[in-house]
């Protein structure tokens, strides 16, 4: 599959709608595996990395789920193409920095993505819309089992799967969800909720994972360790906490509408005005305004399809996507101009927010708030 064919259509998980938990945008499961009797990538010499890649890549491409997949060595991709894959959460920033000896194999609908010779020999991930960690794990576990028929992984009966980083030792599993939490941010409850999440051993990160800031009120919540626990235990605990955080967010939105509807209408209306008519807008400002527009879609200010439109725009206005769209390298000023043009075009048919709809009965709010995610 050609790169442009892969990127031409939005990923399945980008068009999944709100589901039961409107605050949860995506669920992701990642498994780390290393080959037995092969030096781990960080210590391997170039020929050893090449040998491991020659062993893994055919096995991955032969998987039934990866039929017709995009498969390329990173050294054959441009810097913009690699950054587009990072922006779509299909490869990591660290993997994008690698060249010869590393590859990416991505299922055509972008629900599976496998990084070869990243920090570990294999980083496999499955992404699903909404809160579907169990479904994502089930699908990835089947893929992992199929791979074990042709590849021998480094495994210790006591320690489990051996990984480069000790925090991945055991199951090699990292489970995470991307949440949209504007209600908690606007009501100044975000610090309290995230502190409670940290206290029970879960990690909170920004839009692109470790070391990145939260933009557009988007947060990733994930497990921090895997040793000594089963995959099912880790996922059940994470799903429970994420459900509670999503309920907090929904209750925060409801309370904001009850206590200060003018403030909510003002922020959503201002965001709409800027996005509809701005001719220059940087990435951070655009993401923050799209966050409020997405909030308006969930509260009834706009048609519910606005949520899906915002999710698509959140990806398409990223710097590398803009450069790919333009077919050339862009200066920051050019990116800001083209970004505004794309947003204006996509929102052209979106009518002004309907404040009367903010009090309708079509809101999926929880009536039983729980102030502490650890109390489940």
Automatic annotation (TrEMBL):
Residue stretches of biased makeup (Polar residues): 346-358
Single Gene Ontology BP annotation: phosphocreatine biosynthetic process
A single GO cellular-component term on record: extracellular space
Described purpose of this protein according to its UniProt entry: Catalyzes the specific phosphorylation of arginine residues in proteins.
EC number: 2.7.14.1
Residue numbers spanned by region Disordered: 344-376
Enzyme class label: transferase
Protein name: Protein-arginine kinase
Keywords: Allosteric enzyme, ATP-binding, Kinase, Nucleotide-binding, Transferase
Domain annotation Phosphagen kinase C-terminal: ranges: 23-252
NCBIfam families: PRK01059.1-4
Extent of motif RDXXRA motif of the pArg binding pocket involved in allosteric regulation: 335-340
Reactions catalysed according to its record: L-arginyl-[protein] + ATP = N(omega)-phospho-L-arginyl-[protein] + ADP + H(+)
Record-listed ATP binding positions: 26-30, 89, 123, 174-178, 205-210
Family statement: Belongs to the ATP:guanido phosphotransferase family.
